[in-house]
Amino acid sequence: MIPIYCNSLTQYSRYTTRVVNIGNIPLGGDNPIRIQSMTTTDTMDTKATVEQSIRMIDAGCEYVRITAPSITEAKNLENIKKELRARGYNTPLIADIHFTPNAAELAARIVEKVRINPGNYADKKKFESIDYTDTAYEIELERIRKRFTPLVKICKEYGTAMRIGTNHGSLSDRILSRYGDTPEGMVESALEFLRICEDNNYYNIVLSMKASNTLVMVQAYRLLIHKMKLLGMNYPLHLGVTEAGEGEDGRIKSAVGIGALLEDGIGDTIRVSLTEEPEFEIPIAKMLVDRYSNRASHKAIPEIKNTLPYSPYDFKKRTSTEIINIGGHNVPRVIADFSEKENITSSTFFAVGYNYSIPLDKWNLTDLACDYIFVGDNTIDFETPGTLGLIYNTASWNALKNKTRCYPLFSFKEFLEAEYKSNEINFVSVDIDIIISQFFNFPIFQSDKTIVLIFETTNEHGMAEQRRMFVELMQNNYNVPVIIKRNYTNLSEEKFQLHSATDTGALFLDGFGDGVWINCPNPKGSKQQHPSGRGAINATAFGILQATRSRISKTEYISCPSCGRTLFDLQETTQKIRNRTDHLKGLKIGIMGCIVNGPGEMADADYGYVGTGVGKITLYKGRDVVERNVNSEKAVDALVELIKKNGDWVEKE
Fold this sequence. Notes:
The protein has 653 residues and is α/β, with parallel strands linked by helices. The protein has an 8-stranded parallel β-sheet with strand order 6-5-4-3-2-1-8-7. Strands 9-12-13-14-15-16-17-18 form an 8-stranded parallel beta barrel. A 5-stranded mixed β-sheet has the order 19-20-21-22-23, covered by helices on one side.
């Protein structure tokens, strides 16, 4: 039996949920996937909050979320709402609540929806591990019931919707003690509160399972749907990656997590959480959602027969044979495509991480140096770096006199008919028709330990088609390594980042793929470089692997998107920290605007920089407080010193 969490793994279909009424814009059911964002202004500054809300709405925001950290801010939501309505804006408002039930109960009488976090609505996090008996656990649940039920009754009376929004990093000590820091714990955290709602016959509910770790986030949403189906529930889902960050990293990370779910028809509303002005999030969210407006008409993909050979709820990398540095326990490899480039010189490689020094006569590699370059039929007449492999079309490879670190790319038919093959690596391009109808008729693809497959697709629903190809290999116990290849045309750099991150990132999250080859060549006839230049394409490939935790090549910043609780300029501070630390490959640094998004929301960060008062910063090593109330003007220096003290610092070259 296939443990399914969506309508189909091969045919695109929206997962149907119940309709939840949020003001004049219903959510779920057959309604469009809604776009939302959150203000970053001080909620007590009515004018600034209204002006920012209008900018968000004009950009296409369908729900505006506003923080209400205390009852004072909750009261001011009424002034904000009145001013927006007076200016002709009827967009539903959402109050974002942490720690303060009285603020939630007041806000529920004013706005169209309240968001509560089950990890801190009725609990104060102390990071204590408690060995609960069943009786003691039930006593805790009864305490929560008494604290939460008044809000449920108010929402029911006023027709206010509610989002029960679980965050990976802010699970309660109770949940952590029983379920651990797991997707299962995230799901149970929401279900505890959901059961209380249903006991009060209240169903106007939206659920979310957010995390900064895309793997955890996707598994949690899948598991939530699986659990809901077993319980006869079908609540709509709000998708988002918390603390995705800024710039291309934030966009790629958001696309990996949100896109992986959208590909399977999951999600009723999305929020892209960037450390930027909220109106900048809206176009990104639209680009993610718009791909699915006509997706259901894609070319048919053969259904999966028999048992699914992997678990969608537990990550395990697909087993593959090691061939030189591809497959096995190696990190996924990156292939750059220079096949359209004429007159390739040593400077051509600069864009993909290789810098040649003429005075020193040597190559310098960056952290984003690709592993292979497909040169097609081009000629390379200079000495290439010793760590770099070159891939040629078959005829051009046959003509080479020196084949050192040079490998052929065969079509399926070419490989079967070839007189000459490499003794090291033979890349063989295949599509789903070959995999399903011909591939397993030739035992050489299991016995020959030089073969690396290149999975190609032209299907509009290409992620699902390539996933289907992996399933076929696994069901037949073929461990041949696979490079995931996708070609795109006529896309802006931003769309290219989002589409490729969605399509390939979703596969890496399930443990598929020993490498990635993405390309966005110049449109035919164009004499200008396409917006997605080779450097941007290469950076995107490494960004996708970083976002899926498949290959760490740079510092990771877990940065919250700012809101009215934020106690410093997040964008400016994030950039200052990035300028000082972006050479610390593999280090994860959490930058949080307030204690709500503090040690919990940073989840698995190595170091944390958290606003705990006006002009005051608290520094963390992991989840442990190291230094409190550091003056903000000295805090970045103090963070650097903390990293040095713990032996994680290296000097910039």
